[in-house]
């Protein structure tokens, strides 16, 4: 049986045929697929787990694997084996194609495995227990061979039931939302809540086995006639698994006006299940995760620690979660008094900050809570059930994305209720109002003055959260009995760090993906190379430590880093305009992903993963008038009035998507295909234009740097993925490449008038020199390296190589080539990677020399920098730790990318 679903094969064949007929007519007349002179290798690929432990208790894992051009045809099937040569069931499907129709990236799902696995062309082994999907009537039924989940297609219930054998483990899975209609800033007022529940609009079966099934459920939260806060939930099931994964996304579409107390304030946001209970209360068990793999291990009716001893065997069995002997065999002084032992039905663990959780319990509603412990950072895991079965549940990044909470209610009754709160109702309501009153900045002139003092680009009405989103991940296990402590520890580990298979750096490099030649494995073979590697390690470690020291955590914040440091306050400038949250400024996302691509380091992957989840959701609008645009760096992630393509840039999502085949990130990339339409809604340089300009769909002013790099990354990705709009996307890639190249000064022209209907830039009548230091630092070099590798268009190559050659050139050289110099520029160290790329592509030895000269002796980080931290203690700072006051995130991102790319391209030509 083919390991790629038959419909995918048919679609791929149709795509290949269409491509052959369509040729390149949609774009440049002379554009062709770039010739491939590289050797093709179909050798098996060794896949390994990012962290030790293999799959553990997780339901499954999906990995993306790249292939050199021309190696595997679109209909290739794949097989997987373990270290012993035994076949491992795998489900495979294409996620990107080369222009010649061959496979560029394939995704592979497994539901078993511990050590290294070998992937090669072949026939996939079928799982002993296949996952199947059946849609009938008002339900979608998914069977893994161990559990059966019935999913709703309308109404409030997403998961109607989860059964294991004949036993129902969970039921009535739905989403819950608490809305607080008003915030009182003083100590007066009455807090009121409104409860909303999920209302399903659409259910889509995206995959149906045999190893992996994916069901997407979209809708909104509803109370009465009001529907708001759209959700998109994906449920993942794997063959033979007793568990499933939920990826939960909400998009904020409420109203919160600055200065107003009334609004749509989220007080609680969660996922809720009912858990049927059948066992006697002394055979019902509660497990709640504390720090590490620590657990609260209790029974609803505890028989340990009593004044009378039922017997050590009985006590030990209850603590272990095993069925107790018949009470008739106990010490009768206990048996005859069982009715006087309290039953604890309700438990709550709340994590309101990254530094503390509290745990409490009570017998039932209307009675007082009893403290049950606490600690710093809970795992986000829980279990309720008994010896005949129960539900384990967990929320990933529980403390990192505080305030979070776990509730168990009514465990003493026939049906317990479990709620995983993504936003704890015990926290302050979700207040997303803009943080100041505008301070009189009513005109563009006043706003530019504000920019010149706080670096914030303010504009009334622009600092809105309407349309931002957040994605969370949850895991659920349907256990046939209360799990052993060892099994519970495995489940906790899966919640904390979801196991991930990965292809090795060598495969990525040999496949020539993500910019051929731009990264290579770390090399310490010479003192100069070793020193740069040390610097790269230092920078990553510093930022990882700063996340912890500065507590860059929270539901909306986790994954981002700060922009600039305040050396006087010994604090990042968290409260100063454009110096606060970074929002992908100058591409730290790219730095992190390139650091991972070359090293395969798990810690870098996890850091980059969190950033991708954040920047693609929170820093970008998904609804409303600015959908498809992102927000420039600021005190709040949506505060700045600069809504631009450079932040919504698909480039920053590509790495995570292709490495994991994550569907949610795939949604984000596809949503950007038509983002050229956003230039009708908003002129990104409206405040500094000197000539009248009205957006015209046939003549939109679009820059060739930060604007076009964001647009073309979305088009390229849609083309590679053969998404629903791939033909239009390919046409846009080619036509814009052609018409940029045709400009009198190519990229140096700076911008052009773009026609939304033709997808072309009008070719200017006269040359213009308009160069910004920002144009190439949002992924332009990395994208152009990919495009030049994919598309044979000499004029575009020449235009880009010219830009690379002259940005770091002297003003005299610039003027000799273009008639005038480029004015005052900066970021030369970061642009040294453009020198290096052009040097290799053109064979220009002088450029190679200049690349290292600009890297070592221009701006940015010099070898004479301290390259160390200094201790930071009270009373100088809020928290003891360390600082490197000379570090800025702009310089870090640029140094990191320049170091990685220069080493890969010109590592053999370093100065002595």
Write the layout of secondary structure elements.
Elements: H1 6-22, E1 32-33, E2 45-49, E3 61-66, E4 78-81, E5 91-97, E6 103-110, E7 117-121, E8 132-136, E9 139-143, E10 147-152, E11 159-164, E12 167-182, E13 194-208, E14 212-223, E15 226-238, E16 243-251, E17 262-276, E18 284-289, E19 295-299, H2 312-320, H3 332-335, E20 346-353, E21 356-362, E22 370-375, E23 381-386, E24 389-395, E25 404-409, E26 415-423, H4 444-454, E27 469-479, H5 485-496, E28 501-502, H6 505-511, H7 527-549, E29 565-566, E30 571-572, H8 588-599, H9 602-617, E31 630-631, E32 643-644, H10 645-648, H11 651-660, H12 663-671, H13 678-681, E33 700-703, H14 706-721, H15 726-741, E34 751-755, E35 760-761, H16 780-790, E36 791-792, H17 794-807, H18 811-818, H19 828-842, H20 845-856, E37 870-872, E38 881-883, H21 889-906
Antiparallel strand pairs: 1-36, 2-7, 2-28, 3-6, 4-7, 5-6, 8-9, 9-10, 10-11, 11-12, 12-13, 12-17, 13-14, 14-15, 15-16, 16-27, 17-26, 18-19, 18-23, 20-21, 20-25, 21-22, 23-24, 24-27, 25-26, 29-30, 31-32, 33-34, 34-35, 37-38
